[in-house]
Amino acid sequence: MVYAKNQLSWTLQIKPGVFNEYRTMWFKSYRMTFSYLNRIKNFRYPWVKLFSTSQTTVDSSEVKTFVALAHKWWDEQGIYGPLHSMNDLRVPFIRDTLLKTIPNHQPGKPLSGMKILDVGCGGGLLTEPLGRLGASVIGIDPVDENIKTAQCHKSFDPVLDKRIEYRVCSLEEIVEETPETFDAVVASEVVEHVTDLEAFLQCCCQVLKEPGGSLFITTINKTQLSYALGIVFSELIAGIVPKGTHTWEKFVSPETLESILESNGLSVQTVIGMLYNPFSGYWHWSENTTLNYVAHAVKSRVQEHPMSAEFVLKRETEELQATACTNPAVHEELKK
Ligand SMILES: C[S@@+](CC[C@H](N)C(=O)[O-])C[C@H]1O[C@@H](n2cnc3c(N)ncnc32)[C@H](O)[C@@H]1O
């Protein structure tokens, strides 16, 4: 028995000749029932409101950590140094991915005309370079002190002042006023801090333009290595990030992320590993995703969203009937 990668259905692999037709029938109905139940679980009608603004994805204990460090965002040698140097990878990655969707772009301002939402923008370390590339960026963060730092820093650059807007809020607070608004949503090093990952990703999906809106996520995989290096080494031994910054249980594997995204109508295009060298202070790309990784997903059309449960049931019943028609023994069983 295999649990499919997108976690939408259980699949039974039956070795030919091992089971007779009757058993094959039984397994098909079994598979159909599982698939049906799974799809009912994952399917959401597009017109159903997905997230109540009375709920929140903000974890108050996480907020305390970020409040205490809010004045340190722009210290390149300080606690947020790794996020500064992560820009060497993430900014070109976002730029080049988005450029594939723009036929003619202005030299110097290649992302001009694009609307980007930077969720959990912190002090604006990623928001600013995206603004410099010409995009109109809204940076949101639930921590007031972070937004104050970000506002203050961008005010030194009059060009950025016009292109970037910062707001103190969570994503779920703006989802109703900005449905299908953004060409891209960026949540960099944020999902490992939220309380309800599924709700957070649903909101990301809702504010993306349809079809074609791009979601960029950078985060930490949930592996033994990420526990050893991300928490024990980085926080407790080397002090690269303050103790208590991360909770291993909140880390997420690319597979889980992909499954949640796909059940929300996003199709994952790319997942690439990123490795940080604490001695050089630089990041590099890697095929290895056991620690940090970036994921890019694109919002599909409504028709491509998860199929309705009724449709799945109808299709699988038809398959079953087709098997019955071509096989007299199975046909007889069905008649009983
Ligand atoms: C590690 S920092 C990353 C900051 C920024 N994205 C960057 O990479 O430079 C995580 C940020 O997420 C914010 N955050 C935490 N929980 C959040 C939530 N539920 N929704 C949005 N932002 C959140 C924190 O306040 C913090 O600024």
UniProtKB/TrEMBL annotation:
Pathway: Cofactor biosynthesis; ubiquinone biosynthesis
MF annotations from Gene Ontology: methyltransferase activity
Cofactor(s) in the UniProt record: Mg(2+)
Entries under SUPFAM superfamilies matching the protein: S-adenosyl-L-methionine-dependent methyltransferases
Binding annotation for S-adenosyl-L-methionine: R90, G120, D141, S188
Top-level taxon of the source organism: Eukaryota
Protein name from the UniProt record: Ubiquinone biosynthesis O-methyltransferase, mitochondrial
Source species of the chain: Saguinus oedipus
